[in-house]
Write a structure and sequence with these properties.
The protein is mostly beta strands. It is built from 3 helices and 22 strands. The strands form 5 sheets. Strands 9, 10, 12, 13, 14, 16, 18, 19 and 22 form a 9-stranded antiparallel β-sheet that branches. Strands 1-7-4-5 form a 4-stranded mixed β-sheet, with no helix packed on it. A 3-stranded antiparallel β-sheet has the order 2-3-6, with no helix packed on it.
Length: about 300
């Protein structure tokens, strides 16, 4: 039997205890690889075999996982009378990299139904103040009103980050500031929505929560500055490899980048691109509301007893 050696190489931002791979050699000489994940977001994991014997498996395997634990893959022997010989290492990256984005998805504006909001587009200030290159596809919106508003998710997803640390300075007027209370939600197609501008004491969700549009309140808005406007900033994006790099060739963080998306929203029975400096009213129909829900969830949703 070949000696089995486990090598760990973890270059990314997750601490080592948050994700790990284990393997088990079975009586039939197959080898099961499984994982344990403490992060709420999807993980892209790459397993590299530096040595393989008595199996047809690829030497580099890419998997994407989002559950707390589960199976990754199985090695099967070519000769059932002999063990599989292997050495492997692995690395992993936060988020679903190179996801299959649902370009046809129709989003719902994040205010309560029939509530009006003023929509502005936000400029990317990184290139102005820090010489950072504008991200690909840059698009970010500000939804504002004169009154405190409940904010709902624009589609079903899982909460992957919550920041509730900041107080608002209402004595000054700001063009922009980045210290905002926020909620980040990952959707099932790998896109991520960032909502910023909550009252730190009025955020109602936590990391790991599954949230549904118009069913779960994420939180309530806070005034933005001395002008006393309630404002929530919103952007939608995903992670991609740079310059067409294949996932099987991915080895470090700086080979990835953020790609922003211009979403289409439901409005008056149609899907529209939002105009800047324009008033919109939050609206939806059942088809739009239930895009990501299975029949059982729709039934419970309508009864008001959806188990999250």
């Amino acid at each position: 039997m070949k000696k089995l050696i486990l090598l760990l190489f973890i270059p990314y931002v997750i601490i080592a205890q948050d994700f790990k791979i284990e393997h088990k050699v079975n009586d039939d000489k197959t080898v099961d690889f499984s994982y344990k994940n403490l992060s709420a977001n999807t993980i892209t994991v790459i397993v590299n075999f530096s040595f393989l014997e008595n199996t047809m498996s690829s030497t580099r395997v890419v998997e994407k996982v989002s559950k707390p634990e589960g199976k990754l893959f199985k090695l099967k022997p070519m000769n059932n009378e002999q063990n599989i010989g292997f050495n492997y290492s692995y690395l992993f990256f936060n988020h679903n990299i190179n996801p299959k984005v649902d370009d046809d998805f129709i989003y719902i504006l994040p205010y309560k139904k029939e509530t009006q909001m003023f929509v502005e587009e936000l400029s990317y200030l990184g290139s102005t103040y820090s010489n950072q290159e504008e991200p690909k596809g840059w698009k970010s919106y500000s939804f504002s009103s004169d009154e405190v508003q409940k904010i709902f998710p624009v589609r079903k997803g899982v909460v992957i980050d919550v920041i509730r640390d900041y107080n608002v300075d209402t004595t000054k007027t700001f063009t922009y500031y980045n210290k905002m209370n926020s909620v980040k939600i990952e959707h099932n197609d790998g896109t991520i929505a960032l909502y910023s501008g909550f009252n730190k004491n009025e955020i109602y969700v936590n990391v790991g929560d599954i949230v549904y549009p118009k069913y779960n309140t994420l939180g309530k808005t806070e005034v933005y500055d001395a002008r006393k406007k309630h404002r929530i900033n919103f952007s939608l994006f995903y992670y991609s490899t740079k310059n067409g790099i294949k996932l099987t060739s991915l080895s470090k963080n700086d080979q990835t980048e953020v790609i922003y998306i211009t979403p289409t929203f439901y409005q008056n029975g149609e899907s529209v691109n939002l105009k800047k400096d324009f008033f919109y009213e939050s609206d939806y129909d059942d088809k739009t509301l239930f895009q990501n829900l299975i029949k059982r969830q729709i039934k419970k949703y309508k009864k008001g007893n959806l188990i999250l």
